[in-house]
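Case study: Signal transducer and activator of transcription.
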Amino acid sequence: MQISQQLPNLSNQTLMELYPDSFPIDVRHYLANWIEEQRWEDFDTDSLEQEPQARRLLEQMVELLQEVAFHNPNVVEKVKLQHISRNMSTFQTQPLQLVRTVRDILRRERLLLRQAAMPPFTQMPTPINGTTLTSREVNTSDLDTLVLKVLDIQSCRQQIHQLQEELNWEKQEAEPMQGTAITKQTRIAQLELTQLFSLILPFLFLFALPPPSRCEQLLGVNGNLRQELMLVKRDHGSVEQFHLLEENLSHLLQLLIHSSLVVEKQPPQVIKTQSKFSSTVRYLLGEKVAPGKPVLLKAQIITETQARNLGQGVIPTENVGELINSTAILEHNTASKSTCATFRNMSIRKIKRADRKGSESVTEEKFALLFTTEIVITGCESPYCVQTISLPVVIIVHGSQENNAMATVIWDCAFSEPNRIPFVVPERVPWSQMSEALSSKFMSEVQTSRGLDRYNLHCLAQKIFDKLEISEDFNKMPVSWAQFNKEVLPGRTFTFWQWFEGVIDLTKKCLKAYWTEGLIFGFIGKQHLHVILQNKPNGTFLLRFSDSEIGGITIAYVDVCEKKSRTSSPSQRRTWTLLDLATASGTSNASNTCTQICQRTKYLRNILQASTQGLLSLLSGADKDLVFVTSNL
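Here is what the predicted structure looks like once written out:
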């Protein structure tokens, strides 16, 4: 719903105070659609370069008002609109003032409508569990509210200044008692200004965690607030509250400038030496960077310990890795209005590893890329040294290390806490968290909409905990990093993650469509599958992921002759011919392979056509892949 359609819900008094004489409510009413379609927020009202664009908007507005007046049958309204269109010419010398006026009105409208829809006593966002809110949790309406409160401060300060001038004049004419009354009124206005400044305090957290798209606007808000404080202190003396607020704003300005350097495109989190990779760093205050000397960003590799010391202001001096193509220029793109430095064709030539503790392997060691530069912001006297780090990366020297390195990355991404000390992760997590991470990883890698259901997850819990009880509740049981990817599974030569990654690879490359359609059972233990296949018709079968082979598939079926369920030997991903099917199904006489396959296929199709319990797809032919699928039974 358009804003103009919701305005009648506001009181008449509110609407009268909302629109100034220079922009009466009639303009807002008759040009509602056109006004809301324009991009007022894109203007920098302090930039004279945007005056021509603002003047074109003014000319369009006047033309539209004249057109509305011409077609209006009401004579009174026609004359009124013609008068308003002539008065709009006052913006001709300052077209950006029109933009500023309309933008502020629209902001106030949005704020009033939100407040009208809010339940009473709505509180502002506060830190959760002692941790700082992330930028994703910051509501952009908070920033709109802060902008409006700054406008109120500016308006109040201007009124105080006007009252002071009137008071200075009346002191010469008025009687002493009258002068005292005027002084009291001025003092009340000053107290109201103090209260307005106090109202912005709950919104100052925005400077520490700005929404990425509003950093430049916040920089302007900070500048306006500091300017208002200077004017108030000049006219009315220093107040302790103003002094504290001034210190906070200066500190928050530095914090905003430093936190505006972000890694827009992360480097790969598993990096092999001697291989190329790229990364992009963006500065969210790009349009405020002072012109002149190009801004050069430098990248370097840092260890986990060096990343921790950054929080204490310790700049890394030891070079732990040789990084090729480690510099890039910060460039502004006028089309996208973004300021980025793209590091292309970076490569790690060699890496210096720290001393490992105990059984820790090289694939558990985490590094990061540190990006640093020196930036001068327009309006600020001295340059700022800003820096940011990438997500943790694991550096390998051989492709065989990639699987274990990816396990380290997954554990870090899934279970790290917000605002942690780099790069601390818990040693144990509840199975409920682990199961969510496994399902998300499976869906993202396979690119499927079907995740892991409770039966699949129960089977995985049985495997990682080495417990075969079907009725066991694993949700609150802790899973350790060692169980995930250090200790081999009982009776196997591989870890849980290595097995699970093989399942993902098999499903992604061979069975994606069948898995997505729900035709593959996949994750099921031997005990459970015998229960499911019990009393099923002859020839019924299901596919399960092999327990003994990485990336293997096993066919469990009801034997036609012996009337019981059997399990074939696992087959890894490859081209299956009809002879392979016979061997996997336990048929020893190769000469009868085709006959038996055809008979079994015909028998199964007859059963499945009459039942919704399963679906068989047999792609026969010596040169074609043969894939077996069945629905969840």
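For the exam, be able to explain this: Residues 140-170 form the longest helix (31 residues).
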